Amino acid sequence: YPTWKRTLARRARESQVKRFCRAQAIQRRLEEIEVTFRELEQQGIKLEKLLRDENESPADQQTRWTNQLLYLVQKKNNLMSEESDLMIAVQELKLEEKQCQLDQKLRSYMNKQETMKTPEDEKAEQDILKQLLEVVNKRNILIQMQEEKRLSEL
């Protein structure tokens, strides 16, 4: 087993482990966001009830409640934006994983000597190349979406 093949296999495993760790971190953060959403919803409901029920409260108190409610809405919008970014990151990880798998398959076909390749092998190699291009294009679209989102936020 040549050294370069072992090196490629080791690098593939390392990148797979990194993707797995990133996926776990994203999943944890999505769960935290979900919990925070619920907490913000409860706080928002309480503030809305206070604003509706306490019409006799001083204007100063109602202004504070309104400001708190607006702050909660802003916080929730920020979390939704972060959640959207994380969902894009999840899609990117899936595409990265698929690209890695296709790349490994393609290498196995390309490592065969031309004289040993059957017409089926050549067709499979071409199909994998097409799939690889599709995955790269999808990743490019995701990156463009992230960039557009970042620019619109500025």
UniProtKB/TrEMBL annotation:
Annotated coiled-coil segments of the chain: 23-50
Principal cellular location given in the protein's record: membrane
InterPro entries referenced in this protein's UniProt entry, alphabetically: bMERB_dom, F-actin_Monoox_Mical
Keyword hit for Oxidoreductase: yes
Keyword Zinc: no
Keyword annotations: Coiled coil, Membrane, Monooxygenase, Oxidoreductase
Subcellular location: Membrane
Domain BMERB: start-end pairs: 13-154
Pfam family, one: bMERB_dom
One term of GO molecular function: monooxygenase activity
Protein name, as recorded: MICA1 monooxygenase
